[in-house]
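Deliverable D2.4 — example input (structure tokens):
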């Protein structure tokens, strides 16, 4: 009987640890048109509602679907993010804005971390903004956050 209780405690602890990490992505659409879209690979995670991952959110992208964007944000301003608790210094969450073709400027877009690294982020208000990647060889423009369980607010027409 003791071994069954011990196994139950261990299983509960593992579940609690696995669910301890979470990240929320929120949207602010000031454009008055379009649908904020969050994708991961080919999967649509959100079309404007807050999205919370239980665990790290790896390789997600967001864009404002205006009717001209492809399913992966082609022809539109793209916000790329990985939200993960840091496992060592220099690691953790990273977010950037991409205008690397086939992506192109569509609307002013920006992001800002919250619940850790509050206020840290970037904005891209025009096709020539220096805050966005324009070519694959551009110097690193990724904004890093080393806080646990950080959230990300993505704003369109900011």
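Example output (designed residues):
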């Amino acid at each position: 009987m003791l071994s069954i209780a011990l196994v139950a405690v261990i299983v509960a602890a593992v579940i609690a640890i696995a669910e301890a990490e979470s990240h929320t992505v929120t949207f602010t659409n000031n454009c008055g048109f379009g649908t904020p879209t969050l994708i991961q690979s080919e999967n649509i995670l959100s079309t404007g509602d807050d999205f919370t991952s239980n665990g790290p959110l790896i390789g997600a992208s967001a864009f404002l679907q205006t009717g001209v964007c492809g399913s992966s944000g082609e022809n539109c301003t793209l916000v790329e993010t990985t939200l993960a608790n840091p496992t060592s210094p220099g690691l953790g969450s990273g977010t950037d804005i991409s205008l690397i073709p086939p992506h192109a400027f569509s609307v002013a877009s920006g992001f800002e971390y919250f619940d850790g690294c509050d206020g840290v982020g970037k904005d891209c208000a025009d096709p020539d903004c220096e805050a966005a990647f324009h070519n694959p060889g551009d110097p690193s423009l990724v904004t890093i956050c080393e806080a646990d369980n950080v959230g990300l607010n993505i704003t369109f027409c900011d």
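The domain at 22-156 is CATH 2.60.110.10 (Thaumatin).
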